[in-house]
Amino acid sequence: MHRREAREFLLSVLYQREFLQAPLDELLEEVDPGDQRGYIERVLSGIGEHGAQIDDLIAERTVGWRFERLALIDRNILRLGTFELLYLPDVPPEAAIDEAVELCKKYGTENARVFVNGILDRIWKENVSREGTGREADRPPAAGGAGPESGCPEGKEDLPEACRDSGER
What we know:
Elements: H1 3-16, H2 24-28, H3 37-59, H4 72-87, H5 93-107, H6 112-131, H7 161-166
Helix pairs in contact: 1-3, 1-4, 3-4, 4-5, 4-6, 5-6
């Protein structure tokens, strides 16, 4: 399985999980992930762990739209792209955004590709300008507490590992 096929599989799993939870092993019975199994497991567990924070980041950037009103498929493409941008340093940010746009072209609603591209681009640029790579997992905690300067969100339950280790809340 190629990475693009893994993303398509992940999108179908994320969409399915909007309605019912199924164990990953059960879902993988239908497909052979090959060397992409680790990527698939990492993304699903990461979106599960950081889902609330990812959804908040997306919702803050959906000007004129409530997050809940986004089409389910578009919402899940945004979740996948946001997770890759913030938590997978081995995926180049440009590739994460481009792959999300490609998923929109194939599966998204009519204007999704422009919408998704804009939101993911903002998330990436805002995080890059804050701490260099923009990757939550790579971001060291800064002295002085939570907030934009430290790279740690204020008042969030789902803090990046670097913030949890430093005791910032």
